[in-house]
Amino acid sequence: MKLRIKTLLVVASMLLAPVIALAAQTQEFTLKNGMKVIVNEDHRAPTVAHMIWYRIGSVDERNGTTGTAHALEHMMFKGTKTLKPGEFSRRVAQMGGRENAFTSKDYTAYFQQIEKSHLEAVMALEADRMANLVFNKDEFGREIRVIMEERRLRTDDQPQAMLYEALMATAYAAHPYRNPIIGWMDDLENMTVEDVKDWHDHWYAPNNATMVVSGDVDPRQVHRLAEKYFGKLQPKTLTRTRPQNEPEQKGIKRVTVKAPAENPYVMLAFKVPALRDADKDEEPLALDVLAAVLDGYDNARLGARLVRTDRVANEVGASYSGVARGPVQFILDGTPAAGTTTEQLEGYLRGEVARIAKEGVSESELKRVKTQLIASQIYKRDSVFGQAMEIGVMEMSGHSWRDIDRLIARLRDVTPQQVQAVAQKYFGDDALTIGTLVPLPMTEQSKPAAAPALSGPLH
Questions:
Q1: Which of 78, 214, 240, 309 is an S-S bond match for 388, by CB 3.0 to 4.6 Å?
Q2: Which of 73, 126, 165, 390 is catalytic?
Q3: What digits encode the pLDDT tens for the residues 363-384?
Q4: How buried is residue 284: exposed, middle or buried, by Cβ count under 10 Å (0-12/13-18/19+)?
Q5: pTM of structure
Q6: What is the spatial distance between Cα 257 and Cα 255, in angstroms, rounded to a whole number?
């Protein structure tokens, strides 16, 4: 299956569809210990999404400790002073709910989807493991082996995932985004239970957490319950790591990965601006739209020309996510068709951006693209969980949930001239990293299986 380089959320399209105006139904308050609570009312069904977001992810790790944030996510299900290993999940299941967790470069989040009468119970569970997690050496030993197997199945045995990992490690010389969220295998092999405990003790605090509650709730009740279960927890002194800013790139970088695979594959990563100021930044919004023009709907430019018309590629894509704590990339990727080399496909992908840089996009095409993107968001905004995800990602990336509606309005105002301008400015050689997958012969043992859904937390 083709690896599409998008985040857990496709933030570019996340900003588009105002099916429900969040500002009209959302309230925010902060507990005395610094914990932020955001309540999004949606009374269409008697369900609630309850999420705890910690503003700590793999970006905060140091060399030699990669994978710690994700390893702690796993350990959060392994028991507290009052709960046995696995009991958290069993209790949520007994409520008829579902729960899980995920780690990203910028944050770690835990969630439960439940019938509204169980909100107090899951709040109590989350507060308990924020403050009272138990770190058992044997449990950690078992879980780190699960994580290493997860890495083998989802990265080491997946050629395109291996290429993406190598691409990021090459594109970034200094910034921690060069490291995989799950961690390098050597770091996992040398990780100790003390490493994970130190991470929890330092970063899992109310003043580094945001609670998002979305669904059929009364904000006053949520406030009362948050005070009851989290208000008594003490804040901690948070010392952020040094920024490790990325030095300026001054020429094309290349990396090649050889692995058993059915087809070659190529990825082009261009360093482009991230969204920093929701009121003023224009280029990130234009890059959002450029990605949609290239690959935002069924008849977008890359697929229409390179796959269906010219038949030089079997699959192609473009992606950009400007909402992040660190630097971001605009990715073009594709699998060449028979008779086309990866080098030729590089030229074809860049040629489509160059065409926009030279000729621009018409008002009618831009309108069509925006209509498609808005339509694609209807089902997500119809979900209380989807709304909670929107809020959480924005908050963890250094923005406010209030920016979501504002960005929707600003994105609708992006002009053809702005799209053409970013196509002209950011797609030269000096900020480009190219990754190429060279397929090796495959045996039955080397065929990459579809990455399974492992038991335990997501990442």
A1: 214
A2: 73
A3: 999 998 877 766 665 566 778 9
A4: buried
A5: 0.91
A6: 7
Residue 341 to residue 328: CA distance in whole angstroms: 28
Give buried/exposed letters for 31-58 (b at 16+ CB in 10 A, else e): bebebbbbbbbbeeeebbbbbbbbbbbb
203, 54 in Cβ contact below 8 A? yes
- Check if the beta carbon of residue 287 is closer than 8 Å to that of residue 357: no
Burial class (CB in 10 A: 0-12, 13-18, 19+), 65: buried
The angle subtended at Cα 16 by Cα 14 and Cα 20, nearest 5°, is 90
CA–CA gap between residue 423 and residue 179 (Å, rounded): 28
In the chain, count H helices and then E strands: 17, 11
Instruction: Give how far the C-alpha of residue 337 lies from the chain's centroid of Cα atoms, to the nearest Å.
Output: 30
Beta-carbon neighbour count of residue 276 at 10 Å? 14
Q: Cα Rg for the chain, rounded, in angstroms?
A: 23
Residue type, 151: R
The one-character DSSP state at 307 is I
Show the domains of the chain with their CATH numbers: 22-229 (3.30.830.10), 253-440 (3.30.830.10)
pLDDT tens digits along 265-312? 999 999 999 999 999 999 999 999 999 999 988 889 999 999 999 999
Provide the angle, in degrees to the nearest 10, between the axes of the packed helices 219-229 and 119-131: 30
The Cα 66–Cα 223 span in angstroms is 36
| Residue 455, token pair as written in the block | 């038991």
Q: Widest CA span of the chain, in angstroms? A: 66
> Which residues in 255-266 are b (16+ Cβ under 10 Å) and which e?
bebebebebbbb
